[in-house]
Amino acid sequence: MRIGTLLKTLFCVGIATAYPNFKDILPNGNEVPHPCKANYLWHGVGHNNPLGGGSRNQFGLDFKTAGLSWTPELCRKDSDGDGRTNGEELGDPECVWKTGSLPSRISDITHPGVCTLSDGSICDADKGWVDCQVEDGLKNCNVLKEPETLNRTIRFPETTVPAEETTYSCMIFNLPSDQDYHLMAYEPYIDNEMVMHHILIYGCDPNEDPVPDEQLNTVTKCGMSAASNCNQMIGLWAVGFPGYCIDGPMGFRIGQGGFKQAALEFHWNNPQLESNWKDSSGVTLYYTPKLRANDAGIMTTGQLNLEIPPVQQSYTVVGKCHSECSRKLIQGPINIFWATNHMHYLGHEMNIKVYRDGVYYTELTNDAIYNYDSPVEKKYSTAVQVLPGDEIVTTCKFKSLSRPKTTFYGDATSDEMCFGFLAFYPAANMPFSTCTAWKDISMCNLWLQQEHNDCKWVDFMFKNVNETKRVRDEVMANCKPFGNCLSECKATLEIPFCRTSMHERRRIRID
């Protein structure tokens, strides 16, 4: 029996590690969209299961007949019978693409195994097996069954989505504050799935002045920052997540002794620059007065500097939360009870590991096959303890076979990210819960030392949004990226960004 189980396991692992290679030998094989689920990719192009494995669709059968290779015959065939050849659907209409090269077209890709009409609807013959329903709702969330549990739905007022590829919009709102509660679960309300990329919920620092009533429940552009004092993440949703539920001795404290206000941040993704879309999405919060033993927090790890070259089979990026940083940030043992990885569509493998005293200690996440559309939640039946001084290493691997240019870190879905999100308790042992890197530089030193030469750089980055934009625009207008340091660029960078004392005035320079 053990041998049989081992063979089954090896067989399944073989399938799981082999099928992505088939995508690499098809033009735009890593970029095939789901025909009826916005923002989803169909990773197993030749299979009825979007994730691959199991029964084949007609394109998969034709691909097998072609010897599991991209041939002119397979390219000219119309496998799904919708009037377009496989080559036309996959961006190789001339049937000349070779493995390792860029297809002649990398946009407007359609599924060669699903019959799709010109209006975007699925042909009747395929409706029986193509699932167009996006899974929603929380299943088996015990706190929702408790009679004490309350809920509140927060939604944006109907708002016009800008005709821009990427927009971050925020709205600050009041939380229940008549007593203490623990936020235990939340689920998204997605009004316009065509544009919704992700939702974040940030608690606003209760020690800071609250946002005035006249500014609450108002949608504003925020550029990944609702307000500088609303930066403690207490919730996140992305495509593929049904929601979130805590089942343990912890919760996010809101109310009199916790967060009294929160910010809802939307990332709208509109690459087609549609001008007539609107959205009024939101979240339902589930909270209870039956407090748990611990307050929870969410820690962010990863790498902020990404420069992924084009046409790469695999490109590795590492972000370290160095031991000296975790020793400053983590003020006592923390217990990690939930974790998830986050990259965009180029991401194909990711893990987060912990090292103690320079020696490998444990692994927090390991997505050997990462799918942006199907994020994996790692829930620990026994929380993993991390100590001050432990090194947390986040490793992201990207595949850029269909990208003609270098891909950078950025907000848009066409940009990339490399972040790990780790939920932990007690929150008091890590009040500042971000430990990311820029190249090999730990960002914690900048965050913890907000005044450097009398310069409050955090205020500059997040409070003075208009000033930040002005300086950035000047730099981009006068500096040539990846080129020589021009005289006008040097002059621009001599702007006195930070106010210092008269006898100690300094300027930011690049030599």
From TrEMBL:
InterPro entries: Cu2_ascorb_mOase-like_C (IPR014784), Cu2_ascorb_mOase_N (IPR000323), Cu2_ascorb_mOase_N_sf (IPR036939), Cu2_monoox_C (IPR024548), DBH-like (IPR000945), PHM/PNGase_F_dom_sf (IPR008977), S-S_Temptin (IPR057626). Pfam families: Cu2_monoox_C, Cu2_monooxygen, Temptin_C. Residues 1-18 form the signal peptide. This is Temptin. Keywords: Disulfide bond, Glycoprotein, Signal. GO terms for molecular function: copper ion binding; dopamine beta-monooxygenase activity. Residues 154-274 form the Copper type II ascorbate-dependent monooxygenase N-terminal domain. Residues 295-437 form the Copper type II ascorbate-dependent monooxygenase C-terminal domain. Residues 17-114 form the Temptin Cys/Cys disulfide domain. It comes from the Eukaryota.
